[in-house]
Amino acid sequence: MKSHHHFLISFIIGSSYLFLTGKSIDLVNLLPWFIGGVLVDIDHFFTYGKNYKTLNLKKITRLIVNDYKQNNQAIYVFHTIEFTLFLAFIIVRTSLSWQYLASYLLHLSCDGIRHKKLVKDYSWLKKWSVAYYVKLKVSTKG
Ligand SMILES: [Zn+2]
Fold first, then answer.
1. DSSP string covering 7-32, please?
2. Ligand 1 center to residue 79 CA distance, Å?
3. CA 93 to mean position of chain CA atoms
4. Ligand 1 centroid to 142 CA: how many Å?
5. How many angstroms separate the alpha carbon of residue 117 from the centre of ligand 1?
6. In angstroms, what is the span from residue 1 Cα to ligand 1's centroid?
7. What does the alpha-carbon distance between residue 59 and residue 52 come to, in Å, rounded to a whole number?
8. Gap from CA of 77 to ligand 1 centroid (Å)
9. What is the distance in A from the centroid of ligand 1 to the CA of 12?
10. pTM of the predicted protein model
11. How do residues 69-120 score in pLDDT, each as one tens digit?
12. How far is the CA of 21 from the centre of ligand 1 (A)?
């Protein structure tokens, strides 16, 4: 899913939550929704930068935009079950707002809906794991 879609969904859900709980709808209160719901896609820049061996943001952005329709699977560290568990652990163990986790899970759900639409099954789900890529790397070495 494209970043502006994530932004819009995070804004609508975050604002609705703030409205229903009587909190002010401002940037400070919406920050967890934007960090969890939009900023997690920053890992696409890490992955493309590593795979194409470039730090040129313009080139990476062009690669991401062109690749969007291809559904090429690669490891995106913030889109893995391991990171999800890590984030949940951090939320439970600290006073960090649960809204970070809620918006993050909303983001993953939206990405999942997009993948389901492209691939028509759930085969992509196992690829949302660091363990999958470690296992793949080990099996291709031997
Ligand atoms: Zn994403």
1. HHHHHHHHHHHHHHTT---SHHHHHH
2. 7
3. 22
4. 32
5. 15
6. 6
7. 9
8. 10
9. 17
10. 0.85
11. 665 667 889 999 999 999 999 999 999 999 999 999 999 999 999 888 888 8
12. 27
In one letter, which amino acid is 129?
S
pLDDT tens-digit profile of 32-60? Answer: 999 999 999 998 888 888 888 888 888 88
CA of 54 to the centre of ligand 1 (A): 21
Dihedral (C-alpha) 104, 83, 35, 14: value to the nearest 10 degrees?
Answer: 20
pLDDT at site 14:
97
CB 85 within 8 A of CB 91: no
CA gap 98, 48 in Å, rounded = 30
pLDDT-derived band of residue 141, with 50, 70 and 90 as boundaries? confident
CA of 90 to the centre of ligand 1 (A): 20
Distance CA 109, CA 81 (A): 12
Structural domain spans, the chain: 3-65+75-141
Please tell me the distance from the alpha carbon of residue 38 to that of residue 44, in angstroms, as a whole number: 12
Torsion region of 10: left, alpha or beta (phi above 0 gives left; psi -120 to 50 gives alpha): alpha
Q: Tokens at residue 141, please?
A: 């070495």
